[in-house]
Design brief:
heterodimer, A: alpha+beta, 2 domains, 5 strands, globular, B: alpha+beta, Uridine Diphospho-n-acetylenolpyruvylglucosamine Reductase, domain 3, 5-stranded antiparallel sheet, 4-stranded antiparallel sheet, 11 helices
Chain lengths: 158, 287
């Protein structure tokens, strides 16, 4: 199968890549661009481990074709910290141990950041519904919800 | 697989008509790309239509709204005017999938994918929504209820696709509602569902009622007897009981891991009752 050239912007950097027509954005990020922060859990949009932002919307990168990102703005977990400074969500997740194995964490951080940009002061119920598409089989979710709320409070004060 | 972004709707229709292999249309991709991954389908041609004019727009038209076929659930949910006019339609669409899926999934896709349990469909049916269908020979308007023909099947011909869905103007003193039953609180497929759209007169008497049920038959069903049972009175206990009997009589579900025939039939009636009372309140009615 021939490859198709695609020009996109990833974490603010203009990026060009070649991919097959049926290749997912997730596979492009991981296998062609070396951005392995987004994880493949299910590959069918159920688990959220591959969450990224595309044109300001939270998506599962496994449910986007690489060729669809022509001209798009993509943000991944790799763009979340600014240099050595972690995003408050990242830091609080570490401080409050809101992860165990860590596979779901990049997707949850990207999704939580998207929520707080829309809704800086969510209720616990709103956090749980928003993150319903991000599965975690370790934590039981409570620490994740608490960490999101701690970071949200800090970001509101900042 | 070839990936094509045609320059016009006409070009897309011709391309799809002339394709000898398997073709798929890409809008939200939340069903198609799952099927691809699961190797349920290996398309020769994938036609992306999202960039074409109007596909991602919500436009006021003749007192109602024309919703582009690639408008996502999230985009629809952010549109206050559509939400105010057809809250039941919007709440149905917003029940589909996760936040991530909402960023991509569309009502047109939910309709064309042909699931009897599609959450966007019952309230579109009770809203008397109309799909605008582009084909190789031109454009036609098709009532939403005539699109799905059975599980995984729709009535569109080769080369045809939906470009927009029109939600008509609604009269004064009208309201709608969609409810589904799932055994958890989020991220599940309806075991049964019901949508109700009511119009009242000044005194709160129901003058028009449409009731549709989902996941209890091969397609979403508009239950005319159930609507008729509510017309001419306030939705008191007797009218509601007659409506519920009509809903139950219209159910012909299957038993599967998500629910039995008996359970689905019973819950469809309960949901229709609850949705009718909510729609009545939204229409300004007081019991």
């Amino acid at each position: 199968m021939k490859t198709i050239p695609v020009a996109t912007t990833i974490n603010g950097d203009e990026t060009e890549f070649l991919c097959h027509a049926d290749e997912s954005l997730l596979d492009v990020l991981r296998d062609r661009l070396g951005l392995t922060g987004a994880k493949e859990g299910c590959g069918t949009g159920d688990c959220g481990a591959c969450s990224v932002m595309m044109n300001g919307r939270l998506v599962c990168s496994c449910l986007v074709l690489g060729v669809e990102t022509e001209g798009a703005e993509i943000e991944t977990i790799e763009g979340m910290a600014k240099g050595d400074t972690l995003h408050p969500l990242q830091r609080v997740f570490l401080e409050e141990a809101a992860l165990q194995c860590g596979i779901c964490t990049p997707g949850i951080l990207v999704a939580a950041k998207a929520l707080l940009e829309k809704n800086p002061d969510p209720t616990d119920t709103e956090v749980r519904y928003w993150l319903a598409g991000n599965l975690c089989r370790c934590t039981g979710y409570d620490k994740i919800i608490k960490a999101v709320q701690t970071a949200a409070a800090e970001m509101r004060g900042a | 697989m070839r990936y094509v972004k045609p320059e016009s709707f006409e070009a897309a229709a011709t391309l799809l008509r002339d394709e000898t292999g398997i073709s798929r249309i890409l809008a939200g991709g939340t069903d198609v790309l799952v099927q691809l991954k699961a190797e349920m389908v290996e398309p020769d041609l994938m036609v992306d239509l999202k960039h074409l004019p109007g596909m991602r727009e919500i436009v006021a038209e003749d007192g109602g709204f024309r919703i582009g076929a690639a408008v996502s659930g999230a985009q629809l949910g952010e549109h206050d005017a559509v939400k105010a006019m057809w809250p039941g339609v919007v709440e149905g669409v917003e029940l589909i999938g996760s936040s991530q899926v909402q960023s991509r999934a569309t009502m047109a896709g939910n309709l064309c994918t042909g699931s009897p349990a599609g959450d966007a469909v019952p309230a579109m049916v009770t809203a008397e929504a109309v799909a605008r269908v582009q084909g190789p020979d031109g454009v036609r308007d098709v009532p939403v209820i005539d699109i799905p023909t059975g599980p995984g099947k729709n009535s569109l011909n080769k080369g045809e696709f939906i470009t927009s869905i029109y939600l008509p103007a609604r009269p004064a003193h009208a309201g709608d509602c969609y409810l589904r039953f799932i055994p958890r609180t989020e991220m599940d497929i309806a075991v049964s569902s019901a949508a109700v759209s009511l119009t009242l007169d000044e005194e709160g008497t129901v003058t028009d009622a449409r009731i549709a049920i989902g996941a209890v038959a091969p397609t979403v069903r508009l239950v005319k007897d159930a609507g008729a049972a509510l017309v001419g009175a306030k939705p008191d206990d007797a009218a509601i009981a007659a409506m519920v009997r009509a809903v139950e009589a219209a159910c012909s579900p299957i038993t599967d891991k998500r629910g039995t025939i008996e359970f689905r039939t019973k819950t469809a009636g309960v949901l229709a009752k609850r949705a009718a009372l909510i729609a009545y309140g939204r229409a300004g009615g007081q019991l």
